[in-house]
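Entry, Tuesday afternoon. Goal for today is a structural model of the target with S-adenosylmethionine bound, before we commit to ordering more compound. Inputs were pasted exactly as handed over by J.K., no edits. I checked the ligand SMILES twice against the vendor sheet because last time a stereocentre got dropped in transcription.
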Amino acid sequence: MMSSFVVNPMPLLDWNIAWQEALKKRSHDRHDSEHWNKRAASFAQNARKSNYADHFIRLLTPQPHWSVLDVGCGAGTLAIPIAPLVQRVTAIDFSENMIALLNAHCIEHGIANIHTRVTSWEDDWSLAGIDQHDVAIASRSLVVEDLRTALTKLDSRARHRVYIASLVGDGPFDRRIFDAIGRSLNRGPDYIFVYNLLHQMGIHAEIRFVFNGGGNKVFHDIDDAFEQFNWMLGTLTPDEEHNLRRYFEKHLCKTRGGWTLAYKHTVRWAVIYWNKEQ
Ligand SMILES: C[S@@+](CC[C@H](N)C(=O)[O-])C[C@H]1O[C@@H](n2cnc3c(N)ncnc32)[C@H](O)[C@@H]1O
């Protein structure tokens, strides 16, 4: 007797719904514009010290005739180094403080080809006058409820290419510290959700990983280390504070100019990109 195989049709996972479910399980609150307003100055300072932008721009290969849209631009981590390499950059972000820092930098350094706007992913970009650019970028800023709508929106504003940089695993969060203070960590969905949803949308993207190098942070003392990890941990309970102090006492070691963690914390980002002509 011939054996016959019954092939069950695979239930198709909707990656937009999977993204939303994973977002709900995140162990930290959604970050609104107020959160980013408070973090703007320190984020800008740290982003400038890192070599993330160099890695990203090497993949981007900017062309002098390009117009570039940078969504969730922050204080200009990418917009500032890209501006001299292209014709013009439109940089948008929902944090007024990020945009104010970018504007101040442009004035101070005589940069005339970055146009900024306080606009969110969720706003009506047509009303905000965000038209098509040669290249559209969303670098580490794709934190939205409706991923499919955001990807469609970004894609629609690009004539030639789209670039997205997305979290890999825990991203910049140091799990060892969470374990040490007894707090659970769930960073929510990472790049693989973005990549799979793009596939479901018929977009077959390239992917490269870049490393946030540049060496460990240097702290003046333990109090400074507490302050510099505040963005990651927020308010600590007395127990958590006690455990974190013990952790620092154990893992901080003397370096030139202060103290640093004795181990290297490497952060990876996934850069996902595609040509519109595919
Ligand atoms: C991690 S920073 C990345 C900044 C910059 N693109 C970079 O790669 O360094 C995330 C940025 O996205 C912005 N952002 C987050 N959610 C946003 C939203 N819904 N609409 C617009 N901007 C948003 C934040 O204000 C912040 O400036």
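The chain has eleven helices and nine strands.
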